[in-house]
Amino acid sequence: MPVKKVKSEQNSRLRTKKVVAKPITAKRSSGLSVPVYSLSGRSSGTMSLPKEIFGVKVNGKLLTQALRVYMTNQKNFTASTKTRGEVKGSTAKIYRQKGTGRARHGAIRAPIFVGGGIVFGPKSRKVRLGLPKKMKRAALLSALSDKMVNKEILGISGIDKATGKTSEIVKLLKKVSTDNALIVTGEKTDHMVRAVRNIPGVNVLPVDLINAYETLKHDFLLITKEAVERLSKARAAR
Fold it and tell me: Do residues 125 and 152 make contact, with C-beta atoms less than 8 angstroms apart?
């Protein structure tokens, strides 16, 4: 009989938690806003951002795992050493087994001799780590929300009017006081890519190609209205 009483108490606690969690979910529907700048660096109002993308709870452990996967996949493990079976040298016994007073050895290619093989040395290998799609999406949302918490997101307008000149982007970066930024566009724009390719620390990516690593690698995120709309549509489609 006492066991049944404990179970009933636990069930009542779980019901209470479910009831309390409802207003928290409803509260997350409100939006966020960031200042918007034109290509000339002038302030042109604000832009609202969906809280379900830029206002989720930041998962630090997931971000650490995602960054480790992205950074490992960029490495090339090309270092390679030769074992005693791969180095050049005679296979003959270098001196007789007994009677010399020295340690017994079978070949000059042994690792103990100069020019011999390497023991447990590195070998070239291919290392590729994977991350499930759901975890990739969750890591991206955490990265975007982290940028929002740290006030490192700005809106940008007039991308379609860009001339492709580097000086135009440099002027914009001076106005927003940064030299390390990721510009996120709705679609791939060749003139923007041409404008930033000679600026170290600045990159342009369409919204379909951004990930947690690229988001956190840059100090600021400059995002267009079209990119935000495509993010919202992709989020709603899932």
Answer: no
Domain final position from 67, 102, 126: 126
Answer positive or negative: Cα dihedral of 127, 132, 137, 139.
negative
Exposure string over 4-36, b if 16+ CB within 10 A, otherwise e:
eeeeeeeeeeeeeeeeeeeeeeeeeeeebebeb
Output the pLDDT for position 24: 31
Kindly state whether residues 145 and 206 are assigned to the same domain: yes
If one counts the domains in the chain, the total is 2
pLDDT in the model for residue 185: 92
Among residues 135, 132, 74, 85, which one has the least CA distance to residue 110? 85
DSSP strands (E only) in 43-168: 43-49, 153-156
CA-based R_g, the chain, Å: 29
Q: Residue 30 has what pLDDT?
A: 45
Q: Are strands 181-185 and 220-223 parallel, antiparallel or unpaired?
A: parallel
How is residue 42 written in tokens?
């002038």
Residue 129, burial from CB neighbour count under 10 angstroms (0-12, 13-18, 19+): exposed
Contact indicator for 109, 94 with CB cutoff of 8 Å: no
Query: Taking the model in full, what pTM does it have?
Result: 0.74
| pLDDT under 70: residue ranges of the chain | 1-31
Domain boundary among the residues 126, 145, 164 is at 126
Domain that holds residue 108: 77-126
